[in-house]
């Protein structure tokens, strides 16, 4: 009986409700909010030609990180979007891209704060 109580306390439970927050500025990521935290997610499309697939393409949601507030989730996304996998020929070109992404997220956060 004691073991059953322990198992039940460690079992994941479904959230009561989930809010999905998506925007083209956040692509390919989106944020979900439940009563506990903000989760950064990404949609993953499986490859139908993969040897483990049954010849079908599936799309599923993958949770990446968990945050206590919305601003932390947005900051994580902005940092992740800086991993562009591009070759920059100069520091200036990287900094321009960095500032662009940073300003987009900052404007987004400021816009949210002004409506609250």
Mean pLDDT: 78
Quaternary structure: single chain
Overall SS class: alpha+beta
CA distance, first residue to last residue: 48 Å
Summarize the amount of helix as a percent range. Answer: 25-40%
Order of helices and strands: HEEEEHH
Q: Show unreliable segments.
A: 1-10
Major sheet: size, sense and barrel closure? 4 strands, antiparallel
Shape: flat
Radius of gyration, whole Å: 19 Å
**Count of individual domains:** 1
Number of distinct helices? 3
Task: Detail the topology: elements first, then pairings.
Elements: H1 2-10, E1 19-21, E2 29-33, E3 38-45, E4 59-67, H2 70-81, H3 91-115
Antiparallel strand pairs: 1-2, 2-3, 3-4
Helix pairs in contact: 2-3
Can you tag this structure with a few keywords?
116 residues, four-stranded antiparallel β-sheet, 4 strands, 22% strand
Short account of what is shown:
This protein has 116 residues and is of the alpha+beta class. It has three helices and four strands.
Q: How would you characterize this protein structure?
A:
The protein has 116 residues and is α+β, with helices and mostly antiparallel strands. It has one domain (17-115). It is 40% helix and 22% strand. The chain contains 3 helices and 4 strands. It has helices at residues 2-10, 70-81, 91-115; strands at 19-21, 29-33, 38-45, 59-67. A 4-stranded antiparallel sheet has the order 1-2-3-4. The model is unreliable at 1-10 (pLDDT under 50).
């Amino acid at each position: 009986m004691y073991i059953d109580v322990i198992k039940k306390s460690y079992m994941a439970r479904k959230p009561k409700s989930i809010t999905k927050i998506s925007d083209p500025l956040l692509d390919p990521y989106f944020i979900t909010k439940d009563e506990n935290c903000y989760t950064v997610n990404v949609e993953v499309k499986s490859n139908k030609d993969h040897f483990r697939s049954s010849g079908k393409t599936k799309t599923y949601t993958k949770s990446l990180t968990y945050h206590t507030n919305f601003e932390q989730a947005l900051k994580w996304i902005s940092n992740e979007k800086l991993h562009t996998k591009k070759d920059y020929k100069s520091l200036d070109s990287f900094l321009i891209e960095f500032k662009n992404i940073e300003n987009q997220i900052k404007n987004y956060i400021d816009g949210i704060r002004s409506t609250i």
